[in-house]
């Protein structure tokens, strides 16, 4: 029997990673460096405890291409930069944003048990 589970909207995993890497004011996936920085406290696994996303973070996410951000979901560098992928995946829901189909498809895994 197959069991289908979803780890949640994986769209925002890259948010802080890009904020740390991008040095210019260029936009990535429709989100500016300032937008990434606004979301950083909400996805950081470093003390102090993560905070709820700010209005600035949610506004930036609202204009971002979440499907594009989903393509960075499995980046191995995210934990290196102190990003908790589980926290990042919670951002769209915390900002009352719909999860794009691209993100939903990427987060499904199939576990088979015999």
From TrEMBL:
The keyword Signal applies. InterPro entries: Bifun_inhib/LTP/seed_sf, Bifunc_inhib/LTP/seed_store, DIR1-like, NsLTP-like. The keyword Signal applies. Residues 23-102 form the Bifunctional inhibitor/plant lipid transfer protein/seed storage helical domain. Keywords: Signal. Pfam families: LTP_2. GO terms for biological process: systemic acquired resistance. Residues 1-26 form the signal peptide. One of its GO terms (molecular function) is fatty acid binding. This is Bifunctional inhibitor/plant lipid transfer protein/seed storage helical domain-containing protein. It comes from Amborella trichopoda.
């Amino acid at each position: 029997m197959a069991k289908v589970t979803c780890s949640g909207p994986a769209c925002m995993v890259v948010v802080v990673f890009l904020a740390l890497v991008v040095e210019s004011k260029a936009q990535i996936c429709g989100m500016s460096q300032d937008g990434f920085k606004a979301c950083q406290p909400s996805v950081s696994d470093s003390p102090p405890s993560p905070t709820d996303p700010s209005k600035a973070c949610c506004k930036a996410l609202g204009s971002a291409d979440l499907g594009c951000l989903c393509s960075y979901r499995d980046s191995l560098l995210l934990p290196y930069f102190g990003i908790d992928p589980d926290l990042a995946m919670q951002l769209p829901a915390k900002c009352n944003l719909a999860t794009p189909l691209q993100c939903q498809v990427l987060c499904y895994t199939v576990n088979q048990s015999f």
